[in-house]
């Protein structure tokens, strides 16, 4: 009769199964790609950067080119009006100085005609300002432009009236000075609105 050296051969099955499971788990986990320790932080940083960038793009900086088309058209129109207004200011100062010089460097007919032209052209510029389509958020600047150029137009008319009057030139000189100051105020407001809009 043959004697079985191990009367309970089944007792080795469970340890072999467990050992196989441990080995399989080890090889399976080893095959997974390693996770970067900075993965979570990198994701947070990326989100923050995106948010910051989004905020920056909604507020154009000077010369950034981020001004929308309608606002740029508005600013370009203002630049053109301002350029013409400063030329008219120079013209008014020139003829007024020539009239006040001793001896006079300009005839009455010439100064009158040139002052009439300044008045007509200034009123035309005021009409252009009034016809502008104002971008949202720039309404207060538009009010300043309108006030300044309206005063220029009134002053041009007053200067002409002073020239035609019998006084010794006080009304004309005061009107010319007012025109000069109002044109300078207009120029200042143009620079202010360009800064506010984010243009160069």
Q: Per the principal axes of the C-alpha atoms, what is the gross shape?
A: rod-shaped
Strand content: under 5%
| Unreliable residue runs | 36-64
The structural class is: mainly alpha
Number of helices: 6
Q: How are helices and strands ordered from N to C?
A: HHHHHH
Say how many strands there are. 0
How far apart are the termini? 109 Å
**Helical proportion?**
over 70%
Structure description:
- It contains six helices and no strands.
- By secondary structure, the chain is mainly alpha-helical.
- α3 packs antiparallel against α4, α3 runs antiparallel to α6 and α4 runs antiparallel to α5.
- About 14% of the residues have low confidence.
Write a concise synopsis of the structure shown.
The chain is mainly alpha-helical and 200 residues long. It is built from six helices and no strands.
Provide keyphrases for this structure.
200 residues, mainly alpha, 6 helices
Helices, strands, pairings?
Blueprint: H1 13-31, H2 39-57, H3 69-100, H4 108-130, H5 139-164, H6 170-197
Helix pairs in contact: 3-4, 3-6, 4-5, 5-6
């Amino acid at each position: 009769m043959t004697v079985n050296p191990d009367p309970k051969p089944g007792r080795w099955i469970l340890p072999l199964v467990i050992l196989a499971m441990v080995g399989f788990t080890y090889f399976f986990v080893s095959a997974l790609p390693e996770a970067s320790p900075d993965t979570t932080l990198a994701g947070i940083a990326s989100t923050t950067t995106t948010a910051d960038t989004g905020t920056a793009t909604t507020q154009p900086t000077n010369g950034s080119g981020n001004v929308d088309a309608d606002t740029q058209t508005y600013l370009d129109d203002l630049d053109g009006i301002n350029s013409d207004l400063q030329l008219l200011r120079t013209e008014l100062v020139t003829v007024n100085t020539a009239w006040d010089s001793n001896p006079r460097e300009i005839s009455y007919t010439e100064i009158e005609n040139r002052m009439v032209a300044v008045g007509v052209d200034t009123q035309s510029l005021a009409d252009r300002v009034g016809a502008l389509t104002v971008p949202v958020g720039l309404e207060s600047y538009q009010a300043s432009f309108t006030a300044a150029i309206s005063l220029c137009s009134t002053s041009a008319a007053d200067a002409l009236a002073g020239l035609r009057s019998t006084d010794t030139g006080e009304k004309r000189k005061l009107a010319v000075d007012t025109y000069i100051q109002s044109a300078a105020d207009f120029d200042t407001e143009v620079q202010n609105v360009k800064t506010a809009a984010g243009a160069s």
